[in-house]
Specification:
Elements lengths: L1 E10 L4 E3 H5 L6 H8 L3 E3 L7 H15 L9 E5 L10 H9 L5 E5 L5 H14 L6 E8 L9 H4 L4 E11 L4 E9 L7 E3 L5 E3 L1 H21 L10 E4 L4 H11 L10 H4 L6 H11 L8 E8 L3 E8 L3
Parallel strand pairs: 4-5, 4-6, 11-12
Antiparallel strand pairs: 1-7, 2-3, 6-7, 8-13, 9-10, 12-13
Helix pairs in contact: 3-4, 7-8
The structure holds oxa(dethia)-CoA.
Length: about 300
């Protein structure tokens, strides 16, 4: 039995912070941000909207899209590095607020690769027949750990949530291969400081990402005996258009076959892949039977990728 996507959903807070707005906060320019990152604007959650509030909205949309109710869920996993509190988990808050049965619920921490870790973990429970429908959410309120005086990082990040219901799909559909990995020697390049702000050595993370994203994308496709040209759509972690372009060019697929949500949301860490996926599915850019590659990387360092055949 294969595991695949039964439904997807996303939520982004209303408040838009443009590059022009950032020019008033730090020594930067719209031109620098656009050319170095591809980001035009990002969303920022209000004071009274926490991580679990955004997660709930994305989860509700994913359940609706899957034609399922909360009581149909067998497990809830939330990938986040910005939970409301270290514990209880955002996943248990969702269990309660969605009105799900008293099912397994946990948060997982793999930074920007978190959603990939969640989806691939869900696949194992489903393919061993342990569980049927698993809600996986990627959600971040990065604005609460952003150092608004550091132009190296504050222009990059945004808030938001994406969700998917993973469950059994018919033969030949769903997640066909995956790769997960980590390299803790890169930990000092991206972390939360004791002052609770985000530190990043951008150049080092960039070097790692332009190597890892193309490599993982090709690996998952080759693993199922297909080649780069067979890929119909690429949803890479939306961190920087230049890194995403490296993966697209390595696969040799045209521009319109890659998500570019980064322009409008910036880097939303674990939420970036499910937000982009949900938007592009709803816009009809991803169609039944398309071979889709999802690929993420992040702090840890961590990475994860899947090749999947879209549809139920
Ligand atoms: O999801 C988590 C993973 N994180 C990432 O994927 C981030 C990976 N890294 C990157 O995306 C890029 O390295 C950045 C976008 C962070 C930086 O781009 P870059 O082309 O690597 O620039 P740089 O770090 O080499 O900096 C070039 C110059 C520096 O000035 P000097 O030292 O050459 O005088 C920076 O101080 O740009 C300066 N700079 C800025 N200038 C205007 C850095 N940030 C800004 C800014 N506005 N916001």
């Amino acid at each position: 039995m294969n595991a695949g996507f039964l439904g997807v959903g996303h939520f982004a807070p209303e408040k838009v912070l443009t590059n022009k707005d950032l020019e008033k906060i730090v020594d930067t320019s719209d031109e620098w941000i656009r050319t170095r990152t591809g980001i035009e604007e990002r969303r920022i959650a209000s004071e009274d909207m926490d991580t679990s509030d955004m997660a709930l909205r994305a989860a509700e949309e994913a359940l609706k899209d899957a034609n399922l109710e909360a009581k149909d869920l067998d497990m809830i996993m939330v990938a986040t590095v910005t939970p409301d509190t270290p514990f209880p988990s955002v996943a248990t808050m969702l269990q309660h607020r969605l009105g799900a049965n008293k099912v397994a619920a946990m948060d997982l921490s793999a930074a920007c690769a978190g959603f990939m870790y969640g989806v691939i973990a869900a696949k194992q429970f489903i393919e061993t027949n342990a569980y049927k429908n698993i809600l996986v959410v990627g959600v971040e309120k990065l604005s609460k750990i952003t150092d608004w005086s550091d132009r190296n990082t504050c222009v990059l990040f945004g808030d938001g949530a994406g969700a998917a219901v993973i469950g059994p799909v018919s033969e030949g559909k769903g997640i066909l291969s995956f790769e997960l990995g980590s390299d803790g020697t890169g930990g000092p390049h991206l972390y939360q400081t004791p002052e609770d702000t985000l530190f990043m050595n951008g150049r080092e993370v960039f070097k790692f990402a332009v190597r890892q994203m193309p490599e993982s994308s090709v690996y998952v496709v080759k693993k199922i005996g297909l080649s780069e040209q067979d890929v119909d759509y690429l949803v890479p972690h939306q961190a920087n258009i230049r890194i995403m372009e490296a993966a697209r060019q390595r696969l040799g697929i045209p521009e319109e076959k890659m998500s570019t949500a980064v322009k409008r949301y910036g880097n939303t860490s674990s939420a970036s892949i499910p937000i982009a996926l949900s938007e592009d599915v709803k816009a009809g850019k991803i169609k039944e039977n398309d071979l889709v590659v999802l690929v993420g990387f992040g702090g840890g360092l961590t990475w994860g990728a899947v090749a999947l055949r879209w549809g139920k």
